[in-house]
Amino acid sequence: GASEAEGAALFAGLDPAIAQNAYFVVSELYANAIKHSHARTIRTFLQIRSLPSQGRELLLRIDDDGVGGAVVVPGSGLAGLDERLHGLGGTLSISSPAGGPTSMIGIIPCF
C-alpha cells in the first residue's frame, strides 16, 4: 500500500481546496463502508489523470467486499457527497449490487 508520504506527495500539487475536499470525500466513503457494508476488505485507489482536452482530474475509488446495496437516498451521507462533488464540477458513481461488492468512484476536476 501507499505510505502516508506517498499520499502527501499525490496531493502536493493540487489546489488546497481540492485536496481538502478529496480528503473529506475519501474519509466519508470509508466511514460509509465501515458503518454499512460489513466488509472484510476495503481498498482505496487515488489517481491524478491528465485529460485529452487539457487539465487534470482526481479519481478517488473505494472498493469493498461487503453486502452491497449502497444507494444515494435524499438526505443521506452519500447524497451529501454527491452534492459536494457536483459542486466541485465532479461526479460520484456507485456500483453496489445486492450481495456486493461495492465500488464508489468520485471524480474531481483539478485544472
Structure description:
By secondary structure, the protein is α+β, with helices and mostly antiparallel strands. The protein is 37% helix and 28% strand. It is built from 3 helices and 4 strands, in the order H-H-E-E-H-E-E. The chain has helices at 4-12, 16-36, 77-87; strands at 42-50, 56-64, 91-95, 102-109. Strands 1-2-4-3 form a 4-stranded antiparallel beta sheet, with helices on one face. Helix 2 packs antiparallel against helix 3 (77-87). It is globular, with a radius of gyration of 14 Å. The protein starts with a helix and ends with a strand.
Annotation, overall tally of beta strands: 4
Rg from alpha-carbon coordinates:
14 Å
Into which percentage range does the β-strand content fall? Answer: 25-35%
For the largest sheet, list the strands in their spatial order. 1-2-4-3
Give the rounded overall mean pLDDT: 87
Helix content: 25-40%
Measure the end-to-end span.
Answer: 27 Å
Low-confidence stretches: none
**What class do helices, strands and sheet pairing give?**
alpha+beta
Largest sheet: 4 strands, antiparallel
In brief:
This protein has 111 residues and is α+β, with helices and mostly antiparallel strands. It has helices at 4-12, 16-36, 77-87; strands spanning 42-50, 56-64, 91-95, 102-109. The chain has a 4-stranded antiparallel β-sheet, covered by helices on one side.
Keywords for this structure?
4 strands, alpha+beta, 111 residues, single chain, 3 helices, four-stranded antiparallel sheet
